[in-house]
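stage 2 :: seqdesign
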């Protein structure tokens, strides 16, 4: 039996426990509520940092700019093509870091965005969006930072509010990432005290001397301008991968780019170079030096320009290599790298569609192509001056459409290398003709349409 006073104490204890539990659950409720509110605030406060970049400079700058945001500001980093209607609808603040290619065109990973949102057909109101554009380009081109300006104007027309004017940067002047990021931070109000780390841009890579050790004329008698197979040798062993570009500095300081035609072996870099001759008879600075003016053993400066948009996929994944003329360079590097990767296995997952002019005089690298065929590579040649059967590479794609589509169904990656106007535009048009818009964009978004075009 318990006494009355014990009973009172027990009731008081039960009451205290009850009050304690109530207070605890109320505190929990308040804490949870507060967290949810914080979550909502930070979701709304996510800054979009989007980039369109071919050779990685704009991408590196975008990453760096994002890293410079105040530690409490969450961000989302995306290639421009992945910025869709939902992302635009849910973003309040954005930074776009974009370079320009062709003649004022977007890099490949911004082309689908440009088609959707900047052609005047998109009607969503973007007045909730505040943005800045960092525009990378080169004053050597007529439409300096053309795509950056197109993007700026397009977003403004859709109602988005610019926080800064377009922030231009020129490759020939040497991009200055710190200056650009500070400019953006000051003008946009995204100031942070985070220490500015150096992005790794190609301008920080060192040039090394390279000796011309071999030069072979590939097309004597061709109706096209002379093209040469060039070998350069550096003192130290060099590292690069198929898809990378050689940046050459010629006497006088002019810089030119050449797709690398070989795999990283020892310290020899091979190129395929077309001679440029002006109407008055003189030769282009770079191609003139490489194909005629320089003697064997003469030296120039070389550095590797990484070109990740044109890198290899696993050698077991089918690949269709399409190119004409000197575009063979970038494709050859890939085919050689694949041959190395598969070893004794056949090259059966590779298809080369190569175009030149004259079937007799333009049999570029004929014996090497025959070896690749023996190794299992499928070869299709197109000659535009063939009297019986004049063809361009895009004609071959159409003639073999069924097989082409079946390769794509099996997951093939398309590599296009060479002239932008003469060949790549034609290939692009045929591809868009063969595929629905959704299929075409899927190909791009899956990074199965890789280009090194100039
Ligand atoms: C990513 C990339 C990869 C490339 N890969 C290759 C490759 O693998 N192989 C290859 O051959 N090329 C390649 N190129 C092109 C190469 O970089 C050079 O543009 C090409 O060799 C011409 O340069 P050049 O110095 O010989 O000619 P330039 O001196 O630059 O002259 C080029 C053209 O400019 C005009 N021009 C310039 N000065 C004059 C003048 N005084 N009078 C009249 N016209 C003039 C002419 O039309 C002339 O043909 C690539 C380019 C890029 C961007
Ligand atoms: C083939 C080619 C075409 C280019 N066309 C243009 C152009 O039309 N306008 C421009 O301002 N810059 C042009 N550029 C310069 C690039 O935009 C510049 O080098 C930029 O830094 C590249 O950035 P990325 O590494 O992010 O692709 C061109 C460069 C190349 C190689």
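stage 2 :: out
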């Amino acid at each position: 039996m318990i006494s009355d006073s014990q009973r009172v104490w027990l009731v008081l204890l039960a009451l205290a426990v009850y009050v304690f539990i109530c207070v605890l659950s109320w505190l929990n409720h308040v804490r949870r509520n507060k967290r949810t509110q914080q979550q909502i605030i930070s979701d709304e406060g996510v800054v979009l940092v989007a980039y369109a970049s071919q050779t990685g400079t704009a991408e590196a700058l975008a990453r760096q700019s994002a890293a410079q945001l105040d530690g409490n500001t969450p961000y989302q980093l995306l290639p421009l093509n992945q910025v869709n209607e939902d992302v635009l609808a849910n973003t309040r603040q954005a930074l776009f870091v974009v370079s320009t290619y062709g003649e004022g065109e977007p890099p490949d990973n911004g082309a689908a965005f440009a088609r959707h949102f900047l052609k005047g057909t998109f009607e969503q109101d973007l007045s909730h969006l505040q943005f800045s554009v960092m525009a990378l380009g080169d004053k050597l081109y007529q439409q300096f930072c053309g795509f950056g300006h197109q993007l700026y104007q397009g977003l403004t027309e859709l109602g988005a509010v610019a926080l800064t004017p377009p922030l231009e940067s020129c490759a020939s002047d040497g991009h200055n990432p710190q200056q650009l990021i500070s400019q953006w931070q000051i003008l946009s109000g995204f100031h942070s005290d985070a220490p500015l780390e150096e992005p790794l841009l190609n301008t920080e890579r060192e040039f090394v001397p390279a000796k011309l050790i071999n030069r072979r004329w590939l097309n004597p008698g061709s109706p096209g301008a002379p093209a040469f197979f060039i070998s350069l040798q550096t003192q130290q062993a060099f590292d690069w991968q198929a898809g990378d570009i050689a940046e050459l500095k010629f006497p006088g300081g002019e810089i030119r780019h050449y797709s690398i035609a070989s795999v990283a072996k020892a310290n020899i870099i091979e190129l395929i170079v077309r001679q440029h001759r002006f109407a008055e008879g003189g030769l282009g600075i770079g191609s003139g030096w490489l194909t005629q003016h320089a003697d064997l053993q003469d030296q120039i400066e070389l550095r590797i320009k990484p070109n990740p948009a044109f890198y290899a996929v696993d050698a077991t994944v089918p690949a269709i290599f399409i190119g004409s003329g000197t575009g063979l360079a970038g494709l050859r590097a890939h085919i050689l790298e694949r041959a190395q990767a598969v070893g004794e296995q056949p090259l059966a997952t590779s298809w080369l569609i190569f175009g030149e002019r004259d079937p007799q005089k333009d049999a570029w690298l004929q014996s090497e192509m025959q070896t690749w065929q023996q190794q299992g590579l499928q070869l299709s040649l197109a000659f535009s001056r063939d009297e019986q059967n004049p063809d361009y590479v895009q004609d071959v794609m159409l003639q073999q459409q069924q097989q082409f589509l079946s390769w794509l169904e099996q997951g093939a990656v398309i590599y296009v290398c060479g002239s932008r106007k003469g060949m790549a535009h034609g290939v692009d048009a045929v591809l868009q003709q063969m595929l629905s818009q959704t299929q075409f964009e899927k190909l791009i978004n899956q990074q199965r349409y890789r280009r090194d075009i100039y």
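stage 3 :: structure notes
- The pocket of flavin-adenine dinucleotide (ligand 1) is lined by residues 245, 256-259, 271-274, 276, 278, 284-288, 326, 329, 452, 454 (CB under 6 Å).
- Residues 1-41 form one domain.
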